Amino acid sequence: MTAPEATVVAVDEVEALAVDGLRWLTDAARETSGGGLAWTTSPSDDEPDPMLYSGTAGNIPVLLEAWRHFGDDSYADTALRAARSLADTVDGIDDDSLYFGRTGMALVLRTLHEELGAPAAGAAADRAWERVRSRFDGTRWGELFELMGGNAGIGLGALLVGDAELAVLALEPYLRTAEQTSAGVHWAHRAGVGSRLHHVSHGTLGIVLALARVGGATGRADLVELALAGAADVVARDEAGPEGFLVRHSSPQYRPDVTPPVSYGWCHGPAGDAQAFRLLRDITGDPVWPALADRCWHTVTRSGLPERLRPGFWDNNGRCCGTAGVLALACDRIAEQQDPYDFAQVLVADLVARATRDEDGARWSNVDHRATPGDLEPRTGWAMGNAGIVRELLRFVRLSCGGDPRYAFAWPDQPAVPAQPAIRRSGTDAVS
Predict the structure, then answer these.
(1) pLDDT tier, 372 (very low <50, low <70, confident <90, very high otherwise)
(2) How far is CA 2 from CA 302, 303, 304, in A?
(3) H/E element holding 336?
(4) Which residues contact 72 (CB under 8 A, 6 or more apart)?
(5) Rounded distance, CA 340 to CA 423, Å?
(6) I need a surface site. Which of 4, 29, 167, 357 has the fewest CB within 10 A?
């Protein structure tokens, strides 16, 4: 299958859609005691969700993005109000992980302290890190043992706030729990599960990414070596070479009743695999890794996405498992290696076409192909909703106008691009 042809969307239109998406997102916030703001996963939900993955902590970064992008202090003010609810929540949750718990919340609070001069947010972040450290049992923090919910993500978070000791403590258990395979190593993402997952979100490449980044930053060659062994296991599973790269979700298939054998997004597919290979490129300097990232991109751009070719093939607009996550990689490639805008245009045009826009703003519905009707309620958060989508649209607009390709808040598992893009401008009226 060849890459789809690009549909050019005016940059002003993309930016206006992002503004409408921000309006819907901010209007969905709930007042909390003490003047704070919090979000539920979906507007119809009752309980606030503090998580980086799907709630308040993950919504704050797009407010910082909008503040920098537009220079509008109202976005910063909203972020500070959201910080109050996070600060009030950080002691009471029973999860320490990056995406689902205290580590992600602490990262966001620390960023708010540094960017906006919010000492209460900084103090809450310090409390959170003390609690994370105290709950380590010597091997793990909870049931999950991977990037999103376990040690790998906690180690990445600790490294980003300057706690190299905790980062190493979090990653060292992988040395003694690695399972040898014919090509390298892998790990169980939770105890008692026979399947081994392979990709970034819950599988081997997420652990690889954390091992390589922490090992490279702290001079721990053993962690980097283990990362390379994990990557070797995944590379050996490729079914699309020599030009492409595609690895099954898991072996044997995890939850085959609901999980397709292959996916193409950040969480379980080559769009996320490429991020791990970008990091290995930066750590090792070995040309094999950018070549593998290119192979991932070859497969993504020829997969048929973002068209919904068949039920269950591509039903998600979001950052975790859908179009916005692929757009993140497209923009990385534009910034780093002067890739053409063609496929990024395809992705943006699809997000524009699938948005619901009215007097309330803009939002996106994902699809459950097993249900009738299949359109799901729009969500607010980073993973599946407005916060993740709008963040990528704003970055695309900046890149299109020759602006800074970096994010206001860098996600721990997406390697940063250079500060200034060495690329041609695409114009402010239309990307071409």
Answers:
(1) confident
(2) 5, 8, 8
(3) helix 323-337
(4) 66
(5) 10
(6) 357
